[in-house]
C-alpha cells in the first residue's frame, strides 16, 4: 500500500481521511496547513498527497506548486479535496499541477477509487 500525506486545517477532515485510508491499508501522515504539509513532504517521501485548498499560510494550490518544484514530487499524485467547486479554482489547481479534484463532503469509496486510479 501507499504512504499518503493528508493536509487540511480541519482536524475532523484529517481524521476522516486518515480513517478511510488506513482502513484500506495505506499509511497516512497528516498536516494541519500548507506550511506543515510542505515541511513533512520535504522530510519524508510520500506516494500521494491529498490537500485542502483553503488553509492558513500556504493554501492548497500554492502547496501543489511548491511540491511540483521539488524533484521528488514532480510526478507524485496530488489530489485537492475541498469545498471549492468553482471552475476557475479547478483551473488554478490544474495549472499548478494538481492530479485531481474532489469536493467535500467526500464519499470514502470515491476517495479510495480516485486514489487507486492515480497511484497506478
Automatic annotation (TrEMBL):
Presence of the UniProt keyword Transcription regulation in the record: no
Top-rank taxon, per record: Bacteria
InterPro entries: Bact_response_regulator, CheY-like_superfamily, Sig_transdc_resp-reg_receiver
GO biological process: phosphorelay signal transduction system
SMART domains with a match to the protein in the record: REC (SM00448)
Domain Response regulatory: 3-119
Chain positions found as 4-aspartylphosphate: 52
Keywords: Phosphoprotein
PANTHER family hit by this protein: CHEMOTAXIS TWO-COMPONENT RESPONSE REGULATOR, STRESS RESPONSE REGULATOR PROTEIN 1
Name assigned to this protein: Response regulator
Organism, as annotated: Sediminicurvatus halobius
Lineage of origin: Bacteria, Pseudomonadati, Pseudomonadota, Gammaproteobacteria, Chromatiales
